[in-house]
């Protein structure tokens, strides 16, 4: 289904209100494919977004689910004290550092009942029985992977496509097993290297994600054997995205470095370097989603104060090359630029 779209461009699922129904519908209407992000939503909110996408157009779309990881009950007293001091700075209280499964099973039942055309999974592989139930209602199943081993494990349960996430990607890394001894949660593969090694490990269609913001990037991913490219950062500055104004301004300024950190959520994620990331990142334990809940009030208060220094400013390494365009125009421009890049490559090859 994804492979049948006229534009091999996918709008990545970006949780926290960024992947709006309007963004998903605009990308789908332009021939691409859009994903809603179920992460952090209630069942009612997710149903509302699914139905809103359907009101806005007839193009197929997808929903992304977070697979619950292994619960780690750590002593968070030291990090709680750090976040409490930040909360006092912004006049709020730190959140409750609790573990939950993001209503995973309820959301699985919901996407089956709603017959969502494509369902993707991040942070792990779905259960084989879940894949089979999704296939029974005609859904295509995608799993995000970062290594050949994860790709093989995903293939074992019968998924249809793999979204190969390179280390350049913004936001949370899709590692299955977050290694607390690794700052990045596991081995780092750049996108092109990941596509090459994973294509040799499994016989499944691949989607490339990570650092893709221009048409030349899209051409490179397609040339590496992917059926499409998934872009998140490129759409952050589109009008239809629910990106906070403060984050949008920081992205458009293009002056910050990026880094992978656990500072905001307890899971490795790439974002723009700010004060909170620099001061607390080295001390953040591998405790997701406890740290996500703990820091949420601080992040929200910083956003309301228009202060980028304590927000989770997720972005990929090549964010400064993103162009603020309406989503449909961006899809069309990416395809046109990719054609030009491929024509140039053919010319250079004689």
Mean of residue pLDDT values: 97
Q: Would you identify the regions where 5 or more consecutive residues have pLDDT less than 50?
A: none
Backbone structural class = alpha/beta
**What general outline do the C-alpha atoms trace?**
globular
The proportion of residues in beta strands is 5-15%
CA distance, first residue to last residue = 35 Å
Helix fraction, binned, reads 25-40%
Instruction: Give the SSE string.
Output: EHEHEHHEHEHEEHEHEHHEEHHH
Write structural notes for this entry.
The structure is a single chain. An eight-stranded parallel beta barrel has the order 1-2-3-4-5-6-8-9, surrounded by eight helices. It contains 13 helices and eleven strands. With about 350 residues, the protein is an alpha/beta fold. About 40% of the residues lie in helices and about 15% in strands. The chain is globular, with a radius of gyration of 19 Å. The model has no long low-confidence stretch (mean pLDDT about 95).
